[in-house]
Amino acid sequence: MTHTHHQFFSAKRRAKTLIGLALVAMISACSSGVERRSLGTVIDDQTSEIRILDTLFDQPEFDERDHIKVETHNQTMLLAGEVSSAEKKALATRLASELKTVARVVNELAVMPAVETSGELSNSYITSKVNTRLLFSNPIEGSDTGRLKVITARRTVYLMGSVTRAEGEAVAEVVRRTRGVEKVVKVFDYIE
Known about the structure:
Number of domains: 2
Largest sheet: 3 strands, mixed
Strand order of the largest sheet: 1-2-3
């Protein structure tokens, strides 16, 4: 990648970062649901996601063969997707752990060729089905589904959010019964 090309993409990423943070702040302010994180934590989580993606793809080791999804909730960062080597998986964990706003890294990256576009469409479809199901069958009384994060990679659904253990089990059970889901991984921040 040329230096000018890199500068263009870095400036573009910074602009996207600022827009993203503004949107997060607006959405959080307008949300009618019960968010169990402070606005500062929400912004830190969003910023962490953008920073790690920028950091990872600024590394010469990562390229188009790597497909990495990042989600952060309450300082817990989930890395999901595919990378082409065990070294890249370890590097992703190390770089994510170095972020000051990340307390815990859950690395679920698979060492394998990246999923084809059809597989990504399937993942997106499963995520959409799960979100729809949770919208109509939300097991968390008096809550909106906006405080739950649903991430799908290779037909495995990862669940994030601040929930009690009972709420987490109830949500996981709804997700398990969704067609196309092969596995459910709970990455919840448990509260009591």
